Amino acid sequence: MAGGRETCLALIGFILTCLKMVTPEIPTIDQAYSKISNSITVEWATVPGATSYLLTAEDGNTVIETMVANSPGTVTGLKAATLYEITIRSISAAGRSQASPPKQAKTVLAAPILEVSSPSSDSILVQWEAVYMATGFSVSIMRANGLGSIWKENTTNTSLTFTSLEAGTLYTIKAYAWNANGIPGDDSTCNQRTSPRAPANIQVSFDSGALKASFSWAPAEGAFNYTVMALSDSSELTCSTTLSSCTISSLQCGTEYLISVLASNDAGSGKSSSAVTLKTVACAPGRVMIQEDPPGHLSVTWSNVDLGDYYVAFVKSDDGLEVHCNTSLTQCNFLSKCGFTYFISVFAYNKAGQSPLGDIFNYTTAPCCPSDINPVLVSSDRVEIVWSPVRGAELYETKAVDGYNVVECNDTAPACTLSALECDTKYNITVYSFSEVRGSNMSCTPQFITTAPCSPEIKNVSRDAFSMINVHWRSTNDDATYTVTAQGEKGLYQCSSMGESCTMGGLPCGSVFSVTAVAETQAGRSLPSYSVPLETAPCCPTGLTVTQITQSVINVSWTIGTVAQTHVAVLESHTGQSKCHTHQNDCLLGCITCGINYTMTLKAISATGLAADCSSLRYFSSACCPLGVKLYRLGPNGIRIYWQASRGSANYSTDLYGSKGIFTCTPSAGLSFCDVAEIPCGDVYTVMVSPVAETGLKLTFCPKKIYSVTCSGSTLGMGKLFFSWIK
Question: Where would I find the Fibronectin type-III domain in this sequence (predicted)?
Answer without folding.
Answer: 23-110, 111-197, 198-283, 284-368, 369-454
